[in-house]
Amino acid sequence: MSEAPENPLAKGLERLPVHPTVLVIFGATGDLAKRKLLPALYNLAHEGALPERFHLIGVSRREKAHEDFAAEAAEAIRSFSRREPDEKVLEALLAEAKYVPGTFDDESVYRGLKEQLDAFDEAAGQPLNRAFYLSTAPEFFPVIVEALGNEELTKAAGEREVRVIIEKPFGTTLAEAQDLNQRVLSVLDESQVFRIDHYLGKETVQNMLAFRFANSMFEPLFNRNFIDNVQITASEDIGIGTRAGYYDHAGALRDLVQNHMLQLLTLLCMEPPVDFSADEVRSEKVKVLHSIRPPHRDATFRARYGPGTAAGEDVPGYLQEDGVPADSHTETYAALRLHVENWRWAGVPFYLRTGKRLARKVTEIAVTFKPVPHLAFGSEGSVGVKPNQLIFTMQPNEGVSMSLGAKIPGTRMRIRPVNMEFLYGTAFMSQSPEAYERLIMDAMRGDATLFTRNDEVEAQWRIIDPVVRRWEDEAETLVEYPSGSQGPPEANELLLGDDEWRAI
Amino acid sequence: MAAPPAAMMDGVWRERDTSPAAIEAAIRRLLGEAHAANSAYVPARVMNLVCIVDKQWSGEIANRLRRVGRLHPSRTVVVEVEPRRTTLDAVATVAGPAETKPGDFAVLRETVIVTCGPQHLAHVDTIVDPLVVTDLSTMVWAPHGHDEAVDALRHLSQIVLLDSVADPDVDEALQRASDLSDELYVVDLAWLRSTPWRERIAATFDPAPVRGDLKLLSGLQIRHHPDSAAAALLVVGWLGSRLGWELSPLVTRAGNGATRSGTAHGKRQDVKVKLVADPSMSVPGLAGVTLESASGRTLRFDRGEGGLRAHYRRTVRGGADVEREWTVLGASRGESGILGEGIRQALLRDPTYGPALEAALVLAG
């Protein structure tokens, strides 16, 4: 079969054409839909980035009329959009929005959905693409996918593509992830599945690839010969808030390390892909994950926050938070030491830590270089020469900085570290789109580069699952760190040699 | 939700009968003072924008630049031209948000207004050169003409911002853009106004089964603001250059509802081209586009509320025509949005403008 020639009119356009699409959001009245998905859709509509024909269908348990769903969606967009909505665009976006009520295991929901999807096809005079966004509790993921399959809603036909976007968490153990993959892939082809890790939609995360592979000055240094250690930190200054129900089952390890932090690690460590197509990039990331063994007991540490002070106010400890069981053993702080056992990275420790109620909110990767082999300068009268560090900051100030040794002005040769900084906010005029805007568009376009592949998810779980099980089996009393602090000092024990945690 | 405009901190320096060196030293001092007062202040380093304006319209240009919001260049050098002036006066401002959050940073923006006389323009580069930030791209914008100043600045600029619809003589405007594009990257606001239209035309023919219809295009009508014929010519030029049409000058009929019409020769099909001025259109740019194919399909886009209104009709032999209407979502960017987009585009490169411009020149005759 001969391929259609390329669209000659697409060249040079910033927004590439997207096939007309119906987006169905399962869990359309939930928190994620209201805070992220609907505002993202509005902003895409505002910028003229949605497909030429676009329809929205919400599916959720509660009974409500189409108009009520549209009114609630409009209100959510007004509350959470990054820009003030243009009422005319908002009205046009939601004018034909439909709502299908019912529980996700109810077959009649899918029949109603099919009728609605067919009606949109009929009105358009062409088969529209279908994108199903599963923004529900994870136990419904396989239920929905299987029900969509039973109603034959997942079949691509002619020009129509069908895609399913699945929110995290993708399983809470390796076995669950494998089971979920098996059930999802019994209905769908892997090319139809888009597993969201919204970190991958962030500009600074994508910039790591640009930084590594578009600059010849750094890549030659990115290996065991020049790098001493790497620290990946994702700290938050807030507690669990009202999320006790979710968080006490998940914990810090599942919430951030298994997915986001391992993704950051793979982007930092992967080999240059042949090209930036989805499978080439993801295959290189999977190779990194396969190079990591589950950490030994002495390379892992967990703790939870106790009472303390945050922003000058006394705050409760984790066990005193509303909804947290008194006998909880859930960690709010997790630290790991991992090794990427391949030619490039052998011997370089990768320290990962995440925690809630720490001194500051920061997400960063700190790459510490090896010290110079011989120091000709004395350090008397100064802090002296420190190893260079390259810091990728994802939040709060997105950018890249590098510490260098520089001479302190004066008559003596005294050295201290100084910083060279690149801040996104100072170098680019554009406001970064929300991660969900990019990811929704990519999914509708069928570009899976920023989504997690099935083998990637399972490889992540293979590293983390043994730690999860060990921590579940060991009902030890957790170390508590004061809220608002740098975290538990005991976490230093997993550091090798003279390594130190960077100040949060 | 968009936040209300924040209070601003600004450091101001002014001097009469000054020199570029004194101005440059003043900016450095203002930046140093701002950073010393609050280490959160850091200078933006995106690009330099050099505006050459008539002094009497300088305030209007300042307002237009203010309205572009976040798409602001980091250093703006405004050269105001005042008749009969013989000396240089200058005001330098370094501004940033008045309040900064602990641990956060705040971006400073620098503005220099230099008032000079017409005799300075031939060598205005010697005034501007010390004032632009080295190693940043520099864009020149001269909305009130002053071509000699733009020419003097060619060697220290990489980008020129212009608006082909601002010149009443369409041919001259397109020729000037073409001349400048030999040395500089041209960002043409007339071209940017047509972006949503070009995106929609591209999207219409994107699905593989209809892509072949591009070869069957038989009619193209573009409705435009009476002063925006250049924008319409650029869109025809774009289609012609992308689809390999053989083009020749369009025939012009002047007057109310002026038209330009002619025939473009596609590889398989001739295309009847017609540009129609729409006097009811109140803002510069395009009012509508209609595409017809030899297979009996017609697609029409018109400006509408909340986006472009699309109308599709397919002639069915022996049966009723198939007709559909829908809205292609998108907010109007307004003229301030277009200018902001022009500034943002300065750091990108559109490979299709140059060929479209050359084709538009052929169409304009």
UniProtKB/TrEMBL annotation, chain A:
Coiled-coil intervals: none
Protein name per its UniProtKB record: Glucose-6-phosphate 1-dehydrogenase
Gene designation per UniProt: zwf
Domain Glucose-6-phosphate dehydrogenase C-terminal: 209-501
Residues that coordinate or bind substrate: H198, K202, E236, D255, K356, K361
InterPro entries linked to this entry: G6P_DH (IPR001282), G6P_DH_AS (IPR019796), G6P_DH_C (IPR022675), G6P_DH_NAD-bd (IPR022674), NAD(P)-bd_dom_sf (IPR036291)
Task of the protein: Catalyzes the oxidation of glucose 6-phosphate to 6-phosphogluconolactone.
Reaction it catalyzes: D-glucose 6-phosphate + NADP(+) = 6-phospho-D-glucono-1,5-lactone + NADPH + H(+)
UniProt key word GTP-binding: no
Pathway recorded for this protein: Carbohydrate degradation; pentose phosphate pathway; D-ribulose 5-phosphate from D-glucose 6-phosphate (oxidative stage): step 1/3
Active site: H260 (proton acceptor)
From TrEMBL, chain B:
Domain Glucose-6-phosphate dehydrogenase assembly protein OpcA N-terminal: 69-176
Source domain of life: Bacteria
Glucose-6-phosphate dehydrogenase assembly protein OpcA C-terminal domain mapped to chain residues: 186-356
Name of the protein: Glucose-6-phosphate dehydrogenase assembly protein OpcA
